[in-house]
Amino acid sequence: MARWLTGMPAETHLSIIAMILGGVFDRVPPSLRITFAHGGGSFAFWLGRFENAWHRRRDLIGVSELPPSGYLDRFSVDSVVFDPAALHLLVDTLGASQVMLGSDYPYPLGERPVGSVVERSDRLDETQRTAILRGNAERFLAL
């Protein structure tokens, strides 16, 4: 279970930071729609650490033109974090417009019922809730 519990979210987190610091978002058009599973792993939690490193150790941190926070509108994450506090961190960090409903289907650890963390969140307003449950995916898929 270690692979499912920590490995997949860690790989997701590393993918986001590699794309940012490697300058990928500087080279691909903003029209390219990218989303990451597992709530982006621990990316939202560690964003402050990445920001600090980017500003203080540019010689070691990567080639991106902007600090990590400059790319938050270039990708989305799913809502599969299983905990309202984690969902709130995502919304507080990335914005409700960058979080889409996810399920982890067909994997056995997926959220059941799908969307329950979003539904029971007491900090989301109805506009945010609707965006996460439906609107952001419709926009992402150009429906």
UniProtKB/TrEMBL annotation:
One matching Pfam family: Amidohydro_2
Pathway of this protein?
Secondary metabolite metabolism; quinolate metabolism
What are the record keywords, sorted? Decarboxylase, Lyase, Metal-binding, Zinc
**EC assignment:** 4.1.1.45
Instruction: Please tell me whether the keyword Cytoplasm is annotated for this protein.
Output: no
Domain Amidohydrolase-related: start-end pairs: 9-142
**Quaternary structure?**
Monomer.
As for family, the record states: Belongs to the metallo-dependent hydrolases superfamily. ACMSD family.
Which PANTHER family is this protein grouped with? 2-AMINO-3-CARBOXYLMUCONATE-6-SEMIALDEHYDE DECARBOXYLASE, 2-AMINO-3-CARBOXYMUCONATE-6-SEMIALDEHYDE DECARBOXYLASE
Q: What is this protein called?
A: 2-amino-3-carboxymuconate-6-semialdehyde decarboxylase
| Origin species | Agromyces marinus
